[in-house]
Design brief:
Strand content: 25-35%
Order of helices and strands: HEHEHEHEHEEHEHEEHE
Number of helices: 8
Largest sheet: 8 strands, mixed
């Protein structure tokens, strides 16, 4: 009974501290949605820096794909978005979002060395690529119009749940497609994937972070200020 009483007392004291912290401007929880293009390894360093504040705010990370990240922020399921600049940035003015640059990423067209496209002369023609199945990551948006990336009209598609799954599918010669340079550097160096030039140049994609205008707690303020000093260059492993 005494042991249980101590546990209850400790829980009560911890709850009291959290209530006081929230009353002083710290959020009880900060929900951060990461686009799958941003490796979680980058977030680890940001979390370590945040931990030095001894903040009572709990961090909750989730992952979405393409417009799914913007929908999470727009619908209120997330407080902070870290990911790609998309056409959804048109919502920034309509919905009162802050959007700031975070860097850039680059995609290249890659296939397994045993894929029929691997030994064809470059640049690959769009009509030629269309004849082979593409591997695509499914947009996780529930209500926004789903986006596609690098697919050709009439092309067969294998849809997978994440960029990591897309890399594995292309390594297994299940299809072709555009992949972020930073995720396949080792596989290219070891000859497991072959980068092919196409009629289209390598695709550069802007990165950003975004949050809703209005009341802003201390945790969100810290994260937006910290990220404003970060510039990610996902053209190679960092």
């Amino acid at each position: 009974l005494l042991d249980e009483g101590r546990k209850l007392l400790e829980s009560s004291e911890a709850l009291t501290k959290r209530v006081k912290a929230v009353a002083s401007g710290w959020e009880a929880e900060l929900r951060i949605v990461l686009d799958s293009i941003v490796p979680f390894e980058h977030a680890i360093e940001w979390i370590k820096a945040f931990d030095t504040l001894n903040s009572p705010t709990r961090l909750r990370f989730s992952s979405e794909v393409l417009s799914g990240t913007w929908e999470a922020l727009y619908s209120g399921r997330a407080d902070l978005l870290i990911g790609s600049r998309l056409d959804q940035n048109q919502f920034a003015s309509a919905t009162g979002l802050h959007v700031q640059s975070l860097g850039r990423s680059m995609f290249v067209f890659a296939v397994a060395p045993t894929h029929p496209l691997a030994n064809l002369p470059e640049p690959l023609q769009i009509d030629t690529i269309r004849q082979h199945r593409a591997v695509a990551v499914g947009d996780t948006s529930r209500n926004f119009k789903p986006l596609t990336f690098g697919l050709q009209t009439g092309q067969a598609v294998l849809t997978v749940p994440s960029l990591q799954a897309k890399v594995k599918a292309q390594l297994a010669n299940l299809g072709c497609g555009w992949l972020p340079c930073n995720l396949i550097e080792r596989e290219v160096a070891e000859g497991q994937l072959v980068i092919k030039e196409t009629e289209e140049p390598p695709r550069q994609n802007g990165l950003c972070f975004a949050w809703q205008r209005g009341n802003q707690g201390k945790a969100l303020t810290w994260w937006t200020q910290h990220l404003s000093q970060v510039q990610l260059d996902l053209q190679a492993n960092n």
